[in-house]
Write a structure and sequence with these properties.
The structure holds 2 protein chains of 2 kinds.
Chain A (H helix, E strand, L loop, with lengths): L5 E12 L2 E12 L2 E6 L6 H8 L7 E6 L2 E3 L4 H6 L2 E4 L11 H6 L13 H15 L14 H13 L5 E5 L7 H16 L3 E5 L3 H7 L2 E6 L2 E7 L5 H9 L3 H4 L10 E10 L3 E9 L3 E6 L5 H9 L6 E6 L2 E2 L5 H7 L1 E4 L3 H5 L6 H6 L7 E2 L2 E2 L1 H14 L16 H13 L5 E5 L7 H16 L3 E5 L3 H7 L2 E6 L2 E7 L5 H8 L2 H6 L1
Parallel strand pairs in A: 3-8, 3-9, 6-7, 7-8, 13-20, 13-21, 16-19, 19-20
Antiparallel strand pairs in A: 1-2, 1-4, 4-5, 9-10, 11-12, 11-14, 14-15, 17-18, 21-22
Chain B lengths: L2 E2 L9 H33 L6 H26 L7 H16 L6 H24 L5 H20 L11 H8 L1 E2 L2 E2 H19 L1 H11 L1 H6 L4 H27 L10 H11 L11 H20 L5 H37 L1
Helix pairs in contact in B: 1-12, 1-13, 2-7, 2-8, 2-10, 2-11, 2-12, 3-4, 3-5, 3-10, 4-5, 4-10, 6-10, 7-8, 8-10, 11-12, 11-13, 12-13
The chains are: A alpha/beta, B mainly alpha.
């Protein structure tokens, strides 16, 4: 390995969001002519690190070094000026503008008079797509692009910057095998041109295929930076997880009962099509797939937040009317939404108020809600879920992510549901609380609750689910029993690779 | 092995999807134009005097000021903001420039510069509050609407500017014409074309659309969001100032509450003209056509001897119609675009 000096480096960087310490004393150096891997589980702090490199966040402590000199990025613009290009995990496009404009926004080719040179813009975009081996129309608006195509546009955007440092945060998550191969060819070319690359992927074989060194993060801390040569995938997993998987995914054996939730041929035009499945009592069914595959949308339709165009939802033998959360609740469905800050909680409200929200009717004494009953119920649940708090009258916003999630769970469990739908139940939660949430879900299933769990966290899916349903581009493409569910089978179905093989 | 459900992607033709999208994007201006033509034809059939030279001239004169404001408002709305203070600015500037010319024979250019300068200051105040202090635009401009109105009332103190006191050179701007085309619409068209060309063809112009389309992405792209929003408000203010001077030139007589309530007419014109209220979409041409349509409806009601109270109700209905059509179209367009994907992926 060449020991070229680092182009971009982080020096003992720490960063916290409220009570959550996202990064603690992390250092990393990105050298020219090297592809550096960043490994770690969901919530290990990878995306925070990326955002510091990109100038989105400024670290609370520590420094960003460019060519060995401290650099103060005041915003993404500064980082771009310094030659840092980032492919973000979640595409950030302008839906109303054309694909070509999306790629070159802020840096459009110009004519002598300073006007946009549309012909050059189109040609440059076409050339980028040629390089990536995709056929996208540069003139179409970005609205309605599939997740894979959005990702392609993001990649093209980053490449077009001719940057010295290219940061790729899970660029391959939505891509097909062919497209991944193209991206890797481009990445290797950049490496030969002495660019520094940082590569993040949850597919270990990609890391071993592409990268030279790897830095591993766990719970916001630096575990190791080492050469990949001589390392095995098991070594890497050991560093990422750092504990026995069994304790993190305490799956209890349960006896599976009758089908409680039956979804038949559910369709919402342009969002998801012909989705049929059932969840039985005592069973945890995971709904896996890539971001944007339509999983949350199915959950929202089942719960009646969104309407659907065709199909039916049956709970305990009774067919639910569409688009009525009230009916879904009284039939015994509870939905713990994906975004707890926006959809799960009233952030300024107290813990007891939040827990009481779903059961206001039963908390009435006469016409008014009894504060005492509300408080008693909240105290009950706080003990059952081992909630860590100072006072029940504290605003939910001051709790850590994990404890906030427990409040959402308490709020819904207090409705005594027969079907619990949880959407990304452990996103952004520290590992300790994560294990608690998993144990809770396991116990609930053992008690006969039917659980539908949407998760992008593959180890969580594999560790917790009795069955895995996989969605791809709005369709249910696979149903995999626990024994056969592996990273490979689930990801193959989620990226639509199985469909291509079958075709 | 896993159970795989093999599904064939939809077989809609991508060409159809594309044509629909292209048509819809251009259709907005065309459909307003069509509505205008139908309106004019029907009204003329009912009352032939409607299309008299004077009648047409009046409509264009009346629409000019509204269209000018709509052009400025479009710049603001495209960035996902709103400027409710324009009506008050017009009133203030009309009164201020009236005071300025009172009894003197001021140079018109000087009056115009003064008016636009006052407008610029008002616009900058809005812009700074919205972009630097991150106060929601609706609240900021509602606040400045009342503050500016209050200033105007306090200053006017019940007085009014009379046409007799306004120098002829200025009144000539409001009623005169060159080669048979009145000055007012001419000014509006020049401004509209200039702004439209800038927004369409210059990198910084496209950034207005980008910011309104997805503010987070705009931040990540390193765009100078604050500067663009500040510019949008400054332009809206300057055009409101210009409109204020033209108001004085056109009507001569100005009371303190001139252009009272116009902010909502302007927003209505912009939305009817196809500018998305959530930003990112729309053109100044559409907005100006929207202004022309609303003004024409006003004249039609007069010609048809419909009680003028109906005018507001009809404007409101048109607004609701425009928004419903937008919503419907955007759903259809998104769907059409998705179909194109399916084909692309196959």
């Amino acid at each position: 390995m060449s020991e070229s000096p680092p182009i971009l480096a982080l020096d003992h960087v720490s960063m916290a969001f409220g009570a959550v310490r996202a990064l603690q004393d992390v250092s990393i150096d990105l050298r020219g002519g090297e592809i550096h891997a960043l490994a770690g589980e969901n919530g290990a702090g990878k995306s925070t690190l990326v955002k510091i490199l990109a100038g989105v966040h400024r670290p609370d402590e520590g420094q960003v070094l460019l060519d060995g000199r401290p650099q103060d990025f005041r915003g993404p613009g500064d980082a771009q000026q310094a030659g840092v290009a980032v492919i973000y995990q979640e595409p950030t496009l302008f839906p109303d503008l054309s694909v070509a404009e999306n790629i070159f926004m802020g840096r459009q080719p110009r004519t002598g008079l300073g006007r946009i040179d549309r012909r050059a813009l189109r040609a440059a975009t076409a050339a980028l797509f040629e390089r990536l081996g995709v056929s996208l129309d540069p003139d179409r608006p970005a609205r309605g692009l599939s997740i894979a195509d959005q990702q392609i546009v993001e990649i093209a955007k980053a490449l077009s910057r001719d940057a010295r440092v290219l940061v790729m945060d899970e660029p391959t998550a939505a891509l097909s095998g062919n497209e991944v191969a193209r991206l890797f060819t481009v990445a290797r070319t950049l490496r030969e041109q002495d660019c520094a690359l940082l590569f993040i992927s949850h597919r270990l074989e990609e890391i071993f295929d592409l990268c030279q060194r790897v830095t591993t993060l766990r719970d916001g801390r630096l575990i190791a930076t080492e050469e990949l040569e001589g390392l095995t995938p098991d070594d890497l997993v050991q560093r990422m997880v750092g504990r026995e998987l069994d304790t993190l995914y305490p799956k209890q054996e349960t006896t599976v009962g009758e089908a409680v939730l039956k979804v038949e041929r559910l369709t919402r035009e342009g969002v998801f099509t012909d989705v049929s499945f059932e969840v039985r009592a005592g069973e945890i069914v995971a709904l896996a797939g890539l971001v944007g595959a339509g999983r949350s949308e199915v959950a929202r339709a089942v719960f009646g937040v969104d309407r659907y165009d065709a199909g039916s939802v049956t709970v305990g033998g009774r067919r639910l009317p569409g688009a009525s959360p009230t009916a879904a609740m009284s039939a015994g469905i509870a939905l713990v939404p994906e975004d707890r800050r926006q959809q799960g909680l009233v952030m300024d409200g107290s813990i007891e108020r939040n827990i009481g929200l779903t059961t206001l009717r039963s908390l009435r004494r006469g016409p008014v809600v009894s504060r005492r009953a509300e408080r008693d119920r909240a105290a009950d649940w706080a003990i059952r879920l081992q909630l860590k708090y100072a006072r029940l009258s504290d605003a939910v916003g001051v709790l850590s992510g994990g404890n906030q999630q427990k409040v959402v769970l308490a709020k819904w469990l207090s409705t005594e549901p027969t079907v619990l739908i949880v959407d990304e139940p452990t996103r952004g939660i520290d590992v300790g609380t994560k294990a608690e949430v998993h144990r809770l879900l396991s116990e609930l299933a053992a008690d006969g609750l039917a659980v539908l769990m949407i998760s992008s966290d593959l180890p969580e899916v594999l560790g917790m689910a009795d069955r895995v349903l996989v969605m791809h581009e709005g369709r249910l493409v696979a149903e995999i029993p626990r024994a056969e569910a592996t990273e490979e089978t689930v990801m193959a179905a989620a990226t639509g690779r199985t469909r291509q093989e079958a075709a | 092995m896993a159970t795989i459900t093999t599904t064939e992607p939809g077989t809609e033709t991508g060409g159809g999807g594309r044509r629909l999208v292209d048509t819809v994007l251009r259709a907005r201006e065309l459909s307003i134009l069509a509505a205008l033509i139908v309106l004019v034809v029907v009204t003329t059939a009912a009352n032939s005097s409607f299309l008299s030279q004077q009648g047409v001239k009046d409509i264009f004169l009346n629409a000019s000021i509204l269209a000018l404001l709509a052009v400025g408002q479009t710049m603001v709305v495209i960035t996902r903001n709103i400027d409710l203070s324009v009506g008050s600015v017009v009133g203030l500037v009309a009164f201020a420039s009236g005071k300025f010319v009172l009894g003197h024979d001021r140079n018109i250019v000087l009056v115009l510069i003064l008016g636009m300068a006052i407008g610029a200051v008002c616009g900058l105040v809005n812009g700074v509050l919205v972009s630097f202090f991150r106060v929601p635009a609706l609240v900021v401009t509602l606040g400045t609407l009342y503050v500016i109105q209050g200033l105007d009332y306090y200053w006017a103190h019940g007085q009014q500017i009379n046409a007799a006191d306004v120098p002829n050179s200025l009144l000539e701007l409001g009623s005169g014409s060159v080669l048979g085309i009145p000055y007012l619409p001419l000014i509006t068209v020049v401004v509209m074309v200039a702004v439209g060309y800038y927004l369409r063809s210059y990198p910084s112009g496209r950034e207005f659309y980008a910011i309104g389309s997805n503010p987070d992405a705009a931040r990540l792209a390193g765009l100078s969001i604050r500067r663009r929003i500040l510019t949008a408000y400054a332009c809206s203010g300057i055009l409101a100032g210009l409109a204020g001077v033209l108001w004085l030139a056109r009507f001569g007589t100005v009371v303190a509450d001139a252009a009272h309530g116009w902010e909502l007419r302007v927003v209505a014109a912009v939305v009817v003209g196809g500018v998305a209220i959530v930003g990112g979409l729309g053109t100044v041409y559409g907005a100006a056509l929207g202004a022309l349509l609303l003004t024409t409806i006003g004249s039609v009601l007069v010609v048809l001897k419909v009680n003028s109270f109906w005018q507001d109700a009809i404007s409101g209905l048109l607004l609701l119609l425009a928004i419903s059509v937008d919503r419907l179209l955007s759903l259809r367009v998104t769907r059409a675009l998705r179909r194109r994907n399916v084909r692309h992926g196959a």
